[in-house]
Amino acid sequence: MNTIRNFSIIAHIDHGKSTLADRLIQLCGMVSDREYKDQMLDNMDLERERGITIKSQTICLPYRAKDGKDYTLNLVDTPGHVDFSYEVSRALSSCEGALLLIDAAQGIEAQTLANLYLAMENDLVIVPVINKIDLPSAEPDKVAEQIENDLGLDAASIQRCSAKTGEGVPELLEAIVHCLPAPQGDATAPLEALIFDASYDPYRGTVISVRIVNGTLKTGDTIVFMSNGAEYRVEELGLFRLRREAGKQLRAGEVGYVIAGVKTVSDTRPGDTITLKERPASAPLPGFREVQQVVFSSLYPVSTDEYEALGAALEKLKLNDAALTFQKDSSAALGFGFRCGFLGLLHLEVVQERLEREFDMALILTVPSVRYLVHLQNKTTLEVDNPSYFPDPSSIASIEEPYIKATIHIPERYMGAVMTLCLERRGENTRYHYPMPGRIEFNCELPLAEVIYDFYDKLKSITQGYGSFDYELIDYRTSDLVKVDILVNGEQVDALSQLTHRSRARERGLAACERLKEEIPRQMFKVAIQAAIGGTIIARETISALRKDVTAKCYGGDITRKRKLLEKQKAGKKRMKTVGNVDIPQKAFLAVLKSEQ
To answer: Mapping DSSP to helix (H, G, I), strand (E, B) and coil, where does residue 116 land?
Structure first.
């Protein structure tokens, strides 16, 4: 165990985590120059296209140190985006140490602090690393001073490297071996293995990622999941190299995978403890704290026949993404579907894309919303995250909505634009201070509902990409909220209803009507698209009718002949409107959703 090091790389977005992981893999001789490609550990197409890490990935690296000893380095590469912070917290539970990566040009940013606190909660030994020292704008000395003053980390332990060029990476490997502790544990004790991740293989069943805390696990052992008592026989186990590499056993301190023919997806839960049937552990390991979903949206299959397939796909995806929650839902317009909870809009987009790519599902999403507390006149309180369940306004005493504390790091020159953006979004209690010359840390309390739409996109555009944003939920506050319904040809489309603040209701309703007007095909009769609060229409767009030129054959003669034909056509259109149904295409639902983002 003295030659094992379990560590992860944590940092803000785009500070070079995946690039550093690539260099470490190359230096340890895991991949030849011919087989090498960028983002070695990002094996999802989606990760490569967006250039971000979505899933934390584990790899076991063999390394011979300068003192001649052979070490096993278990590296976990983690995401940097705030929407995937739960992924980071689970990855850290399998480690004893962490490399905290900081950009030599950007300095400390919002997620740098958030991830540092996560690592401290898990009692990890932290090695600060200043990356990108090859950049012309790099200021490593200034950033080193900032690390010592703001983070309270020892300046002597700071490593400097360039993951892109490889400069300083061999010294970093030596620091990992000598600065990070070896795992603690007893290989002869009863087995305690923590599940920190899992994925679904259609041929082998569930592939479980485990960290062995105590004991030894061998092929052929009968294991028990402590949360539900399910028993399985181990078919294969081993280490994560670039591909899964089967072995004979996993001992205390090691990180690896277990395949035990688990076909019931719900049996495997990240945070659960695995033990042996014949010699069980006395108590399960402390799992992970429950994650708080903040954005809710309903997913419906385009074809109602695919409802069961969507349920199975969500089960398999939840295995790989423990922050996703879902429950059954139904809509008059779209049939049966699932109400899902997400950690943010990027998380929602990623789940939607993964369902469409990995499981070949065609989906319709409803407008994202947050969870509101509705206090009724009869002294009861409802939790409402779906506009369909919004009670009758006459029975409501008050409504509370969730507020967040936003931490925004920006260069000083963008201060005015960011302050204006926050005040437009009903921001309050704004404060700011200067962590280093030229950079501002701006704090503001905002309603979560104002942030989940396009706040992050707007922030990035007004700060030319230099703004970084992190948030935490603080409390619920009383607010004046209304339900905006969308009516098409007089019929309410429940999937397009949304809850919003009264001051933004007309703006949101008008945007939805304009989008629908562009997307719904013209009919043989006029179609009115309206946004309403209760019985009050607040916005309207009209799709004009397709008209046949009935007067084409009338040349010459009295004008009354033409008028008679036009009146006859008008009466027909009126009659058609009362019986006509308007089919809303899938892209119209998506267009309304996109306009909100």
So the answer is: helix
* Residue-wise pLDDT tens digits, 98-147: 888 888 888 877 677 777 877 887 788 888 888 888 888 888 888 888 88
CATH, domain range 295-365: 3.30.70.870
CATH superfamily of 483-596: Elongation factor 4, C-terminal domain (3.30.70.2570)
Model confidence pTM above 0.85: no
What is the rounded CA–CA span in Å between residue 392 and residue 2?
65
C-alpha span between 596 and 412 (Å, rounded): 29
CATH fold of 393-479 reads: Alpha-Beta Plaits (3.30.70)
* The CATH classification of domain 192-276, taken from the options 3.90.1150.10, 3.30.360.10, 3.40.50.300, 2.40.30.10: 2.40.30.10
Give the separation between CA 391 and CA 382, rounded to whole angstroms: 9
CA 504 to chain centre: 26
Token pair for 457: 């996109």
- HEC-encoded secondary structure of 440-480: EEEEEEEEHHHHCCCHHHHHHHHCCCCCEEEEEEEEEEEEC
Q: What is the CA radius of gyration of the chain?
A: 29
